[in-house]
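Hi there,

I know you've been waiting on this one. I reran it after we fixed the sequence typo, so this is the corrected version. Both the input and the resulting structure follow.
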Amino acid sequence: MVGGPRDSSVTGNHRHLANDETITFFLESEINEAFARQSLPYSVEVINAGIPDYNSSLHLIYYNETIYEYDPDILLFLDGNNEFYGGRSFNPLKDYRNTGVSVIESFNGRYPYFALYVGARYLGRYSKFFQTLQFALLKRWQSEEVPPHVPMYDLPESFDHFNEDYDHRARRTFLRTYTQLKAAADFASTTMLLFLQPQMLFEEPSLLSPEDERTWHYVSEDWKGPAAKVDRTELMRRVRSKIPEYMRELGIEYYDVASIGSARTADRTLYIDYCHMTPDGARVLAERMFPPVFARVSEVVQSRQGAR
């Protein structure tokens, strides 16, 4: 939200995850292993179609542009951080820095920092120096691109009338597009599941590894913001409590996996920063997502058997 939690000097200089370290990889493996244990001759492919910094409006565009052509049996959304936790309405396309308009303007400008960042990111797989350099160049490039104010994350003036005010915000932002996404999935006879993604501030520090606990304290301080009139963590908790009701009204199957730390995982570092997962975190999250996803996959298999 405010850039600080991605600072490698605080959270560590983490490389990008390999394909076999992602949530989708672990989820696919668990599903296929479950079929194998049951001696069932089935396998699934879980495609990672996620794009960094997308919100639900961009999901809708991406679905209609590309994803529907894959004819997916199930659509999985792991969402939340990019649009839920703000205090006022905004236009999800015009007021969001990573829309097509903003990106095209960036490329047309041909800022040298972007070209250097791409080169450093490629070389980063071979050198710690270039791993560090890529983040420095990314930050410098973004400083040229980021608008002076991003209203998506604005805090409310107070919690007075919070329910009414946030209901208005939700209707003008993500509820509009999740309604359309659900309609698109229904039109294609595709099952849609929405998961509220992990968020460091929802974790209980005593259940985290020492490294995660350090990150938790840093994020807690960094996300307070300058002269904040309300506590951001409290705002996020209130929003989290409202999402289930919203999704019930839309008929969207919804699961909260926003906190994944436990005594069982306290010796494993799960987070890179405020919401991004390490390979261990990706594995734990896939384990949490597995039960409802496998239930829906099994239904698809049974329906195809019945159609024979």
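Quick highlight: Residues 1-10 have pLDDT under 50 and may be disordered.

Best,
R. S.
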